[in-house]
Amino acid sequence: MNETTANPLFDAVMPFITEKAHFIIPLVLLWLVLFWKAGRRGRIVAFLTLVVIAISDQMSAHVLKSIFSRERPPYALEGVRLLVDTTRSFSFPSAHAANGLAVASFVSSFYPRTKLALYLVATLVAYSRVYVGVHYPLDVIGGAALGLLIGFSAAALSRRALRLEPASGRKPCQDVTSR
């Protein structure tokens, strides 16, 4: 993926997308909208989103990376097209993918209308990590799986413990005929 999908447009766009400061801006805007405009549920979801990110980031970057100790592609392989600077930290799983998918799955569980935008941003960021040469595809898949697990689990626990429902007001599996 790092070599076979290479093209001038992606060579310009993917380093921009993968830069933390650039994809955090839409997430901060989402958080602010939830906190100030979406009422009580929005403030709770905004706060819990920070908890979800903290859990996802710690699990991916500090627990699992040290367990798997997988070297990043530019240090393990020859000929990797490295389009951004990288660290010597381990590669598996991708924390970018884990955090993005954790936020997407958690927030969209309560605000289904955000699903397309959140998953699109998370997927682009995840793909960009392989494209720019700092992760293997399996790193991103593992990070995405971890993020989805954390996001959906946190949403289920939040629904149960705090009685939070999706923005539509309907329970997630409520049968329309039972009204």
Describe this structure in words.
Mean pLDDT is 89; it is low at 172-179. Helix content is 68%, strand content 0%. The longest helix is centred in the N-terminal third of the chain and has 30 residues, at 39-68. It has one domain (10-81, 90-167). It is built from seven helices and no strands. It is mostly helical and 179 residues long.
Relevant terms:
disordered C terminus, 7 helices, globular, single chain, mainly alpha
Provide the residue-averaged pLDDT.
89
Task: Compute the number of helices.
Answer: 7
**How many separate domains make up the residues?**
1
Broad shape: globular
Total number of strands? 0
- Spans of at least 5 consecutive residues whose pLDDT stays below 50 are 172-179
Write the layout of secondary structure elements.
Layout: H1 8-18, H2 20-37, H3 39-68, H4 73-76, H5 95-110, H6 115-131, H7 137-162
Task: Write a concise synopsis of the structure shown.
This protein has 7 helices and no strands. It is an all-alpha fold and 179 residues long.
